Amino acid sequence: MNLSHSVWSSVLGFEPPYHSLPTFLAPYFVYLSIFVICFTLYQLAKLLTPQLLREYVLDYIKCLTFVAYPWGHGLARRFYGHPGYLISMVPVNSTTALLMNQGQGNPLGVWGGYLRGAVPLWKLVVKCTILIFAGISAYNLGLLIMSVELHPVYTDIIHKQCETDLKIPAYYGFLLEMFGSLLDSWVGLQALTRSKTVNVVISFVFSGILVIIGVGMTGMYLHPAMATGHSFGCGDTPFLNHILVYWLAPFMGMYWATVINRKFHLQRPTGKENLNGKTKSVDVDKEKNVTEVHNTLSAVRKRNKRV
């Protein structure tokens, strides 16, 4: 008898009317459990945590959430392949990112802040340390949720020894994770539309495509704390190789993304609504105003000449 059945029987005094979750619900039970737990903690932290510590606590909880989600991503990929993973991951991650809009859940984001001069070195070290612990906690949170054994696959996963995700030589893995992080970080820095929601969705779609490309070679984590939480100590990957592929490579990728973004930044101009409800860019409106002024002055000059 699994844990969920034992709890049901102990509390209610009779056997549950089910044996396991339907397969299509298995990933979403994991997603929902993680979200409910972490979002509750997130809201409590915003209300109860002292201002001095709030920033760090929110970082921890946000990282905890996103690093725990791969337990659900893995199930979606296992049952429905890469399309199932992408269809599940994008709305879950996008919704969470929009609702948890405070805090930094990825060491690469903190590193990017340092590169822009917004985060001092000491805070970079402190935040990355906190996020490492969040990544380890997220792995254990996933194990805890899986331990209810509401689906046979949960049982298989929690009893399976973890394996390394680094399936290629470390130097190839370094290049793959570096270029993946470069592209992912650069796209995340762009404002391709006027809608923040659409930009977030685009960013996660692009991230998902990168993961699909590289998951069979390095795991394509694009998130150092996630890689450490889920794969550190697994298989025969040496410590230095783990640091090289999952920390140094993404940090290098973020560095080059920041450099490139200074030269090539895509941002759609902010528009404003006219009386007909049509959106025009500020630059177009300015150009129109200048043209109207020029035409008015020309007309005045012509009248003066006639007089």
TrEMBL record:
Gene3D superfamilies: Glycerol uptake facilitator protein (1.20.1080.10). It is a multi-pass membrane protein. The chain crosses the membrane at residues 25-45, 124-148, 168-189, 201-223, 243-260. One of its GO terms (cellular component) is membrane. It comes from the Eukaryota. It is found in: Membrane. Keywords: Membrane, Transmembrane, Transmembrane helix. Its main location: membrane. Coiled coil: none annotated. PANTHER family: AQUAPORIN. This is Aquaporin.
